[in-house]
Each structure stands twice: as structure tokens, then as C-alpha cells.
Amino acid sequence: MNIVRSLWRTAPAVRNAFVTNHTCIRPLSNTTTVTPVPNLEDVPSTVELDKLYKRVELEMRGIDPAVLLSYSWFCVAAASHLGIEVTKNWALRKSEKERHTLLRAVHIYKKHKVQYEIRTYFRFLHLQRLTGSTCDTYLEYIERNLPEGCALKVTKIECQKVPDHITPPTQE
Q1: Region class of 46: left (phi > 0), else alpha (psi between -120 and 50), else beta
Q2: Can you name the residues that pair with 57 across neighbouring β-strands?
Q3: Is the pLDDT of residue 55 over 80?
Q4: Quick one: which of 35, 54, 58, 105 could link to 125 by a disulfide (CB 3.0–4.6 Å)?
Q5: Which InterPro entries match (predicted)?
């Protein structure tokens, strides 16, 4: 009973949910007008076809191989939920190393140097046979969940119609 009293004091929307008599429902008045739904023949047929992609290649770069592996599992799981076919998922064996050598002291002691190394790890994912809307939805979802320290590069290979100026060979 205390729960009902506290809900009664909170908000009108909550109170209306617990009201048992239905006097608050008002009938439609005579002044309401109904607009007819247009026929299908009246609607112009400007239907834009969706793009088709033969393959979408994802290149993931990062500084931590465990984070990249976890993110690639996430991408594969998201693709399976959307019904996207994942054909390849692999990583390079070696990381890309970038070394910088600096002097410890700016003006003297040339023998005393410090070397810094930056390692970049890569993972690749290939998706086959996507429509444009599915591809956009999938890419937006995985881009929003991209972890820190990772980068994503997307390459799309689109299927296009054969141009009109190219004709098939004639049978002679």
C-alpha cells in the first residue's frame, strides 16, 4: 500500500497508469476528419536500388594484439547476428616496428643514446556479398565500438552494372 501512495505522489503519468475507472477516456468528437490514403498508382515510382558490394575488407591496426583479437571476435559476432558472411579473418605474423634513436643530452655525450620502438599490430577481416544498407548499419555499429588505441580502415568493392557502350559479342 505504501508503494501505491508513493507512486501517487510522484507523477501524473504514473498515477494514470494505476487508475482503475476508465472515465478519463474521451470519445472522438464529430469534428475530427479522416484523410484518405493515396492509391499506389498516384505515388511516383522513383525507387532507388540499393548498392551491392562483392567484398568489404576491414583492416584493423593497434598497439595491443590482445585488444585487436578481442575486437575482431566482436566484429565476427556482430556480422553473424546480421547474417553477413565472413570469409577471412587473419593477422600478420610480425608487427610493424618503427624505431627512433635520440641523444640523451642535446649538446654533448654523443655515445649516450636512447632508442624508442613503436610496434603496430594488424588484423584483417573480409566480408562477402553485402547490400549497401546492411553494410552501413554494420560499419556504424563496429565504428562506434572501436576500442582506444585501434584504427579501422574499410575498403569496399562494389558490383556495378555493365556500361551501355559495351555490347556482348555477336554469334556468327
Answers
A1: beta
A2: 126, 155
A3: yes
A4: 58
A5: Ribosomal_uS10_dom (IPR027486), Ribosomal_uS10_dom_sf (IPR036838), Ribosomal_uS10m (IPR040055)
> At 110, is the pLDDT very low, low, confident or very high (cuts 50, 70, 90)?
confident
Determine the Cα–Cα distance for residues 154 and 147; give it in Å rounded to an integer.
Answer: 16
Alpha carbons 88 and 138: distance in angstroms, whole number: 17
> How crowded is the C-beta side of 163, counted as CA atoms within 13 Å?
2
End-to-end CA distance of the chain, in Å? 92
User: Which H or E run contains 157?
Assistant: strand 150-159
pLDDT score of 60: 97
Q: Where are the beta strands (DSSP E) in 7-149?
A: 52-62, 85-91, 96-103, 113-131
The CA distances from residue 58 to 21, 76, 95, 126, 157, in Å, are: 59, 11, 17, 6, 12
One-letter amino acid at 105 equals A
Which pLDDT tens digit goes with each residue over 58-79?
999 999 999 999 999 999 999 9
Residue where the block lists cell 649516450? 112
The highest-level CATH class for domain 52-159 is alpha beta
